[in-house]
């Protein structure tokens, strides 16, 4: 079993050292990493990677910021062409993992052939055992994902492996054959946010068996590259892509968008309203 890891870089200079240290320490050695740089003029990450990585890797620099969805698709196409790769792992670089992070996932995938995709438990970095993700589901009423255990201490310690239908792609390993069999790719028009929600909807529709495993975990430095969920960048893409996916999936809650825009106008949320208007122009 050999893992092809895809990690998309953007404003990653503050986190790349921790990521490389985590990968250098892995007890499972059958992996390589494709780094896709979306911050065109940034040189620090490439220099650090080339000087400090103790594992096989490739570095690819886009000519412009293509977004995380496009970057992940580039990685899928790259690894599908590699005959020795059996599994593809989407992995953020704003994470810290234990040295047996990959080895434990290999063990699960090898001993449980019914597991076609696997997601770990995710803690907030530097906040003790506060959970960001402990399993999840697709929510029609929310028009997005629901994270189990979010902002709480994990209450699912006694369950080793269970079926889910949503996992964030900040860490998600999938058997490579799934991509070859289904042709599923990420929606590049989303650029960032909601991309993993749509991706998991596609996996669910294709009856891909996705599981959560609480005994494997990582620490996630949430929204490092986007300035946090309250930044103008995040507010715009969260609102735009939410409105867009409501329309695309013919969710009845698209009917409340005019009322949401009225409320946004009353409280001065002009970024969100511009995003909702722009969502109509998307293909």
Name its key features:
283 residues; alpha/beta; ten-stranded mixed β-sheet; two-stranded antiparallel ribbon; 9 helices; globular
Structural commentary:
There is one protein chain. The strands form two sheets. Strands 1, 2, 3, 4, 5, 6, 7, 10, 11 and 12 form a ten-stranded mixed sheet that branches. The chain has a two-stranded antiparallel ribbon with strand order 8-9. With 283 residues, the protein is α/β, with parallel strands linked by helices. The protein is 35% helix and 23% strand. It has helices spanning 16-24, 44-52, 67-80, 101-111, 176-182, 195-205, 232-248, 257-266, 270-280; strands spanning 3-9, 31-37, 57-61, 87-91, 95-97, 117-124, 131-133, 136-139, 144-147, 162-164, 171-175, 210-220.
In short:
The chain is of the alpha/beta class and 283 residues long.
- Residue ranges: pLDDT <50 for 5 or more in a row? none
Provide the gyration radius in Å.
19 Å
- By DSSP, the count of extended strands is 12
Largest sheet: 10 strands, mixed
Beta strand %:
15-25%
Number of helices: 9
Q: How confident overall, as mean pLDDT?
A: 94
Cα distance spanning the termini: 39 Å
Helices and strands: which structural class?
alpha/beta
Task: Summarize the helix and strand pattern as letters.
Answer: EHEHEHEEHEEEEEEHHEHHH
Shape by Cα distribution: globular
Helix content: 25-40%
């Amino acid at each position: 079993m050999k893992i092809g890891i895809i990690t998309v870089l953007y404003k990653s200079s503050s986190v790349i050292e921790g990521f490389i240290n985590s990968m250098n320490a892995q007890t499972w050695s059958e992996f390589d990493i494709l780094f896709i740089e979306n911050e065109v003029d940034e040189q620090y990450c490439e220099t650090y990677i080339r000087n400090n990585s103790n594992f096989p890797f490739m570095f690819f620099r886009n000519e412009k910021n293509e977004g995380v969805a496009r970057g992940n698709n580039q990685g899928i196409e790259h690894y599908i062409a590699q005959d020795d790769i059996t599994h593809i792992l989407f992995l953020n670089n704003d994470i810290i993992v234990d040295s047996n992070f990959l080895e434990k996932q290999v063990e699960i995938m090898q001993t449980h052939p019914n597991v076609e995709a696997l997601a770990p438990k995710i803690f907030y970095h530097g906040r003790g055992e506060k959970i960001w993700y402990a399993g999840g589901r697709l929510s029609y009423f929310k028009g997005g994902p629901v994270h189990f255990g979010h902002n709480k201490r994990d209450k699912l310690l006694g369950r080793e492996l269970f079926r889910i239908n949503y996992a964030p792609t900040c860490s998600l390993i999938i058997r490579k054959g799934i991509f070859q069999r289904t042709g599923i790719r990420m929606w590049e028009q989303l650029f960032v946010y909601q991309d993993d929600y749509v991706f998991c909807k596609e996996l669910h529709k294709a009856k891909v068996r996705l599981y959560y495993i609480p005994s494997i975990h990582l620490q996630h430095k949430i929204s490092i590259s986007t300035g946090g969920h309250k930044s103008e960048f995040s507010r715009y893409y969260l609102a735009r892509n939410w409105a867009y996916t409501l329309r695309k999936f013919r969710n009845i809650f698209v009917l409340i968008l005019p009322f949401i825009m009225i409320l946004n106008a009353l409280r001065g949320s002009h970024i969100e309203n511009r995003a909702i208007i722009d969502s109509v122009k998307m293909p």
